[in-house]
Design a protein that fits this description.
It is a single chain. By secondary structure, the protein is an alpha/beta fold. It is built from 14 helices and 14 strands. About 45% of the residues lie in helices and about 20% in strands. Strand 4, helix 5 and strand 5 form a beta-alpha-beta unit. About 40% of the residues are buried. One of its GO terms (biological process) is urea cycle.
Length: about 425
Amino acid sequence: MYKGKVVLAYSGGLDTSVAIKWLQEQGYDVVTFTADVGQNIDLDEVKEKAFKIGAVNAYVMDLKKEFVETMVWPALKANALYEGKYPLNSALSRPLIAKYLAWIAEVEGAVAVAHGCTGKGQDQVRIEVCSKALNPDLEVLAPVRDWHFSRDAEIEYAKANDIPIPITKESPYSIDSNLWGRSIECGPLEDPWVEPPSDAFTMTVDPWEAPDEPEYVEIGFKDGIPVSLNGQQMDGVTLILKLNEIAGKHGVGRIDMIEDRLVGFKSREVYECPATVVLLQAHQAVESMTLPKEVITTKMDLSLKYAELTYVGYWFSPLKEALDAFFDNIQKYVNGTARIRLYKGNAVVVGIKADKALYQEDIATYSDKDAFDHEAAKGFITIWGLPAVTWKSVHKEKSEKPSFLKVVGNGAN
């Protein structure tokens, strides 16, 4: 029985390729949507594959610029790292994909949108929550979650239905990539004791194979956004692509972590995000030079909340929008340049400068050019310590010898 059109978020990978056929078997006409967010694949080939499998229409849209400007840069301003490590490369693309799924569904008169996530995945939450936040009337289908196929069963289903897939049982990685990084799952990576094999990585070389000489890069920021690389002005997409190449050559950007998934269990996750790791370090360095202590410390807590909201699919929530307003306000002061040394898998900030730096050398120096008022320190300490001193003077307790003195005393006796 014909059920109408469904718009499928289509990557060209295993899950979404078999989903086209499965949705057809359930009575739907399938329209695919592929977002170009810098995943470095042949999108014309992806479109042709969608039609070959049976899609009635296929959208491919270049969203790299929008992805960087509306998703990546806000996250960078926030220094967003889920659980302090994951830079949200996959998570950041999902609200943008959901936005266009909802739009295409309206254009096509579709009754539903669909994705290729399993019941264990984070993306099922992000796509469904974001899609329904933008259009509460949309039905969201999840073929892979509903059919309960194992990965091996999916591969056999694809072979039985002549569906071309970029995966074999011998190379079982599940990959998601974009400009901001690459996520790698499955196969040998499911054992946390196993070191990720070299063949899992494509953006970064093994650190021991990296050049034997360090390379230095300088990243310029305006209003908290990277605008130049080594003194050359660049748009966001170009800058990230170039920095991915440079940092990846030095093995920078590999992340291996145990991640707490929203759906209630821990998962071993491997990422490679060369430009991302460098830009986050550079951005935080320039912030340290240009923002006051109370702003930086307050921002640390809010950054964790921002990352959490992004991770769990609350990109279109009022709290996330409020946090954007806070970050945008303070980022207007984050203007300067960070110098980073890249060497054998490490990125280290080795220099920072800013025209309106809060670091003042004549106050910080210990040379004869010292302008700090040392005489003011005594009075400052008296007033600063007054609450603690007052408390102890009011609540006097019998003084006891420190334990180490007791030991010495016993020995002397």
